[in-house]
Amino acid sequence: CFSELSAKTKEEIAFSIAQYLPMFAEKIPRTRKLWMKEHSRMKFFDAISLVFTFVYFEEMNRATR
Fold first, then answer.
1. pLDDT value at 65 more than 80
2. Of the residues 2, 14, 23, 62, which has the maximum number of CB atoms within 10 A of its CB?
3. Is 45 exposed, middle or buried, given 0-12, 13-18 or 19+ CB atoms closer than 10 A?
4. Residues 2-52: tens digit of each pLDDT
5. Is residue 14 exposed (0-12), middle (13-18) or buried (19+ Cβ within 10 Å)?
6. Residue 6: left if φ>0, alpha if ψ -120 to 50, beta else—which one?
7. Is 44 exposed, middle or buried (0-12, 13-18, 19+ CB in 10 A)?
């Protein structure tokens, strides 16, 4: 569902979420370097992206009925 927003990576998805929900913009972790481990706050954005994906596909499913 995030491909429509041209978001492919977890970081791009987090930025997309922050654009839709500005209250989370300050929670986006800094850009990760290859040798750095993922910031613990990315799990928060993973959970939100799961909710967005579920709602997106539910709406798509209702539209095709």
1. no
2. 14
3. buried
4. 887 788 899 999 999 999 999 999 999 888 888 999 999 999 999 999 999
5. buried
6. left
7. middle
Distance of CA 34 to the CA centre of its chain: 20
Q: How many residues does the chain have?
A: 65
Encoded amino acid at 40, one letter:
S
Give residue 11's identity as a one-letter amino acid code.
E
Alpha helices in the chain (DSSP H): 10-20, 42-64
Which residue carries 């993973």 as its tokens? Answer: 46
